[in-house]
């Protein structure tokens, strides 16, 4: 299992670095090893299936991504239950995939399921909960449901500021998303303020990484 876990970690690392063909090779190797050692329905196997689904999604290989994520979801529901946090991770990932495919009602259903599960399991202020709130805000914006979008994005922003600080990348991404929303509403001074804040925060973070 040490070899399998090393391959899994390398696959995730390559994925984070954008080295997607190398990531796929490592994750496929990991999946085959886990299927042989643990079985196809073991939660650890299903985690790798989930990660491959995300990788295919990042490569815009959306049918393959959906097949992997659906396999992961069905397996996790059976092995861990529908409300386990690992199951909810895959539910949220399917929401992201459906949004990318333009299947917005299905995306909303997945996000809402993930949100309710995270709130129950982790609380309303956990970062996983806030990530899903942010995703719902962006989805509502795509649907033209701008007041609902603003409510969600403001909620995500306040939670991130409290949990992670004003200059964390997740906080700044939500600031940027609010800038886009205000721009779409024609609220240009507010949009500019959000864009300026996001830019300044990103510059500060990059500057800090240079001297750390």
Give a structural overview.
It comes from Sporothrix eucalyptigena. This is TPR-like protein. Its main location: cytoplasm. It holds the Pfam family TPR_10. The chain is mostly helical and 212 residues long. It folds into two domains: 111 residues, Tetratricopeptide repeat domain (Serine Threonine Protein Phosphatase 5, Tetratricopeptide repeat), CATH 1.25.40; 90 residues, Serine Threonine Protein Phosphatase 5, Tetratricopeptide repeat (Alpha Horseshoe), CATH 1.25.40.10. 83% of the residues lie in helices and 0% in strands. The protein has ten helices and no strands. Helix 7 runs antiparallel to helix 8 and helix 7 packs parallel to helix 9. The mean pLDDT is 93.
What keywords describe this structure?
repeat; globular; 10 helices; mainly alpha; Serine Threonine Protein Phosphatase 5, Tetratricopeptide repeat; single chain; 2 domains; 0% strand; 212 residues
Helices and strands, with pairings:
Elements: H1 2-16, H2 20-37, H3 43-58, H4 62-79, H5 85-100, H6 104-122, H7 127-142, H8 146-164, H9 169-184, H10 188-211
Helix pairs in contact: 1-2, 2-3, 3-4, 3-5, 4-5, 5-6, 6-7, 7-8, 7-9, 8-9, 9-10
